[in-house]
Each structure stands twice: as structure tokens, then as C-alpha cells.
Amino acid sequence: MPPPPSSGYYPGDLQSAYGLADAAAGFSPGPSAPTVAIVDAYDDPNAASDLAAYRASLSKATDQNTGIAGAAIPPLCSSTVTTGCATFTKVNQSGGKTYPPGNAGWAQEISLDLDMVSAICPNCNIVLVEASTSSFANLATAVSYAKSLHPAAITNSYGGGEFSSETSYNSTYSGTATTAITAASGDNGYGVEYPAASPGLTAVGGTSLSYDRTTSGLTWTQSVWSSAGSGCSSYEPMPSWQADQGVYSLSSDCTGRQTADVAAVANPSTGVAVYDTYSETGWLVFGGTSVSTQIIGATYALAAGSGTLQAAPSALSVDSLSASATGPTTGIVPVTTGSNATCGDYLCDAADSLSSGYNGPAGLGTPYGVSAFVTSATTSTGFGLTVTPASATVTQGNVTSYTVTVSPSGGFDSSVSLAEFVIDSFCHDHDQHHRWYLHAGDLRNERQSHFPDGCHPYLASSSDCGFDAGHAERWQGDEKGAALQGASHSKCFGREYDEYEQPTRRGQRGTANLRWLDLLRYSRRVGHGHDWGQRAVRLQLQHRQDRRVVCDSYSHRHGLQPRKRRDDIQHLI
CA angle, 44 as apex, 144 and 305 as ends, to 5°? Predict the structure, then answer.
């Protein structure tokens, strides 16, 4: 194991600067931990050993410059380490184990990417997908394979100039509901690159990250990195999530897709420590939007481990406190100083930032915590709810109604929406336990093995528990007088405020579009003579947030270029 380096930011520094330490410690390593898929070109034969050395050297390491102590970084899984470890897998662009030729320049990029994901999300699993060459076609193939793995995030630290046919590749570089894609905005200053311009991913800009030590402690400050890419796309029309939201200027300055979306440290003069031995002797200091792209991608993975990932870039523009798009986004800190050119407006100059805090090189700003990357935060500082009663019981043959009282605390005085409630119930006739969910407005069943028609028993007939159409259970919510109520044997699910018309088959999620009904008052009716008992009701109420995510970037004619920058002044031998 190499000794820790004397220059470059450590994992503890980055987690401190971006408020990610709690999220990083919020889940354990293992098969169920989120996965980050990293797409690069060519092979790094030393990728696994260099990554293991980085993680071992900087686990619990204290940066001698900042004085910040880092947390433990678990080892990589191996034949001798099988528990409490993170997995690392390397594959080619098709998922095979025959790797492309090695390349010293891309090996540095690979080391940088692997190390930054490990720094931000040490408990995450990592898959490295190596494209055969740096051509657009091969890198896009690698991204397609990465998407087939359904990771929490796919990162792309490369990019190139826009080209007229780029829109035909947007589907490849578009994230899904469960996979965020990030891409580098570029290291050449003002100007748009692809795939960062793709509207379905998060384009990541760059900052300079500095710290000040005072008697009260260490504080972090950020400004626009002068080489971060930004601008207005020449080929990608402005996506609806930019055109419809008040955080962007909709003047003649730009009618196309605007980049970047968010940012993190990228200046090599305030760079990060990286370990590489394929063409180097060990510790290096790197910058570039390659660094920031991995930081944001790993932040999405932390969000997946902390809550429900919102992987669409449009959600980054929404103020979670007001659910509007007209103000600063909670969980993102605007960058207000610095520029990457003299373009005369917010697309290059932080001094001209919009009221939302948006500017081109840094986007909406840098993350602080993961709240901007999840649909609903699992916890909120200073915010609490007391639910009374915490549970209730309905006995066989009875009709029982009760009201749930929610008392907010911690200075919170806004409205509260129901994010999830769980009903633990028991079908005595068959001695089977079932759990029902209403989560983010969708009804789903954890176990349906004893319901042949696939319907939820409290919404329709089920002979297993003795219900029929005349004794369907009912749930009512009083928002806009809407009633969510059961119907007949063949009617299980449908649209909001309508009858339930589509049965939910075994193992599938319900299609009821209930959104965020304020189901703070509801009743339950049980048919007479049927042996059904409710064991408990547990309410978990969370503040409403609407979140989404963005993705990655690359070049067309001459092969895509990695977006790393090496700081030769701080180069460590």
C-alpha cells in the first residue's frame, strides 16, 4: 500500500466540500449497494490494482493540508475478501472479458474516474466498461451495454465538438427512471460539446475549489473554472424542461439546449489526488470536467442509496420547498463568481447569473447533500412529524373509521403530503402475511402468491380471503373530495379519481395515478362475516419533492477526448 500523497484533495475533503459524508455512510457495501458504471476507451491493465491501492491508502486518511479526516473505504472484493467489500468489474464494450489494447492516456482517465467514484461513494459497486477505441460508435456501444446493467449512474468523462447528426444518438445518452447519466461539459472554455448537449443526461461543468481556515474552522469556497465548457447548443432544441421552467433565460440569447446543469471541482490547480501506475509512478493531481462528472455521477449513486433516485435533469431546476421552478434549488449551492469567456451574459459569466443562480459554466451550482437528486428526501434537518395514532386495528366483522393527526415540528409550517404508508395484514383463512404499499402515488403489493387474479384484495374480490364485489374494502382521501375506493372483482386499477379498470398482475406495479394525494384522513370498511384482520398501519410522511437527473459527453470525427487535466506543477513523483 502506497503512503498517502502530499497534494490533491482526499475523499474526506470532497465529501466535506459537498456535504456528502452522511449519505456516503448511509448504507453498507455489498451486492445491494448502488452501482456506478464508468465508460472509457481502451484498456487500463492496472485498473484493479491501482484502484485497490487508492482505496487502501486513503481509507481513514487525514489530509495534512486541510486537516480533514476521511472515513473508512471498504476493500474491493476478492477471493480472500468476500464480505464488507465493494465489487469492481471490468468488461469490454459488449460485456466480455477480452479487453481492448492498453493506452497510457486513457489509463490515466480510467484511474481518475475510478478513484473519484470511490472517493464520493466508497460503498458503491463499480463496473468499468472499456470501449474498443475512442470513436463515437464504440463509446456509444459501451454506453448501451452499461445501460443494460441498470446501474444507478453511468458516467462519461469525454466529449467533442457538436455535429449535425448528434440528435440521432440522444436515446443512447438518455437516462432512465432508475439510471442517471452524466457527461463532461468540456475543458476548452465557452462552447458546447456532445454528448453533454444531449437533453436526457446531466451536463456537468467545473469549478475551482478552495478552502479557508479560520478560528471557527475550515470553510469551502467555489468559483467558475475558466476552462469549463458551457453555452447554447447549435443542434439540440431547448428541451421542454428548460423552456417551461423559470430558472433559464428564454431570450434570443439561446433557443437551444443550455449547458451545463450542475458542477463540481475541475480546476487542476485545485485538483484531486489520483493513483496510476500503468504509465506513471503513482500519485498524480488531476482536474478537468472528468473529475466533476464522476463526482456528480457518484452523488446520484449516493442518492439511490439514500432514497428514491430522480434521474432526470429537469428535476434539478425545481425548488423542492415550493415545488416551483422559479427559485434556487434546495440542495444545490449557486456559484456566483468567475467566468470562462467574455460572451456578455449568463452563459459564460457567473456575475450575470440568473435569479435562480444558474450560469453556463457551473449550471445551477454544486451539490450539498443529495436532496436535489432524490424524489423525496428520507430525512430533513429540523423537520419532524408526529403521527397519531401510530397504528390501529380492525377486527373481523366490524366497520371502523379513524383520523390520523399529523403534527409538524422544527419550524415546518407548509402542507404535508403522504409519501408512503404500509398496511401489514393477515389473511387468517390461509395463514399468509401480506404487505401493501402506497408509495409515491403507486399502489403495489409485496406478495401476491395467494391472489390468483392478481388484484389487491382490498380493492377487489378475492376468494382466498372471502371478499366479493359487494364487500370491497374502501380507502378514502379528502383532497378535492376524491375517493380512492374499490370496485368489482375485475376492476383493480385505473386513473386518478376514476374506477379501477386494469388488473395488476402478479409481480407488477399498479398503474393507479394517485400522485401525492393528501390521505391524512381515511377509513377502512371490512365486509361482514369475512375473516380479515388488520395488524397495523404505519405512516411515513415526507415532505414533497420533485427531482430529476442528467448525463454525459464526447467527440465525433477524431475520436472522443477524455476531459481530464493534469496539474504538472503539482505532479507527484
Answer: 55
**Nine-digit cell at 13?**
475533503
Q: Binning pLDDT at 50, 70 and 90, where does residue 515 land?
A: very low
Short-list 37, 28, 59, CA closest to 126: 37
Pair 196, 186: CB distance under 8 Å: yes
Cα–Cα distance for residue pair 228/219, rounded to 1 Å: 23
Contacts of 215 (CB under 8 A, 6+ apart): none
- Closest CA relative to residue 53, chosen from 274, 271, 268: 274
Q: How many other CB atoms are there within 10 angstroms of residue 573's CB atom?
A: 7
Provide the H-helix boundaries in 280-413.
289-306
* Omega cis (within 30) before 260: yes
Given a contact cutoff of 8 angstroms between Cβ atoms, the answer to whether 477 and 470 are in contact is no
Percent of the chain with pLDDT over 90: 57
Angle at 90 between CA 89 and CA 93, to 5 degrees: 130
| 320 HSE (CA, 13 A, CB side) | 23
* Residues 552, 40: Cα–Cα separation, whole Å: 12
Q: How far is Cα 308 from Cα 310, in angstroms, rounded to an integer? A: 6
How many Å apart are CA 504 and CA 454, to the nearest integer?
6
Pairing status of strand 88-92 against strand 125-131 = parallel
For residue 214, give every residue at least 6 positions away whose Cβ sits within 8 Å of its Cβ, in sequence order, or none: none
- Yes or no: say if 273 and 68 are a contact pair by the CB < 8 Å rule: no
State the pairing for strand pair 35-41/125-131.
parallel
For 428-431, the CB contacts below 8 A with 24+ separation are: 428/531, 428/532, 428/533, 429/464, 429/465, 429/466, 429/531, 430/464, 430/465
**Cβ atoms 34, 94 nearer than 8 A:** no
| CB contact set of 47 (below 8 Å; sequence gap of 6+) | 88, 90, 107, 110, 111, 114, 128
Looking at residue 557, what DSSP letter applies?
S
Report the alpha-carbon distance of residue 106 to residue 110 in Å, rounded: 6
In eight-state DSSP terms, residue 61 is: P
pLDDT digits (tens, 9 = 90+) for 166-216: 999 999 999 999 999 999 999 999 999 999 999 999 999 999 999 998 877
Res. 421 pLDDT band, cuts 50 70 90 = very low
Q: What grid cell was written down for 425? A: 395484514
pLDDT at 243 (0 to 100): 85
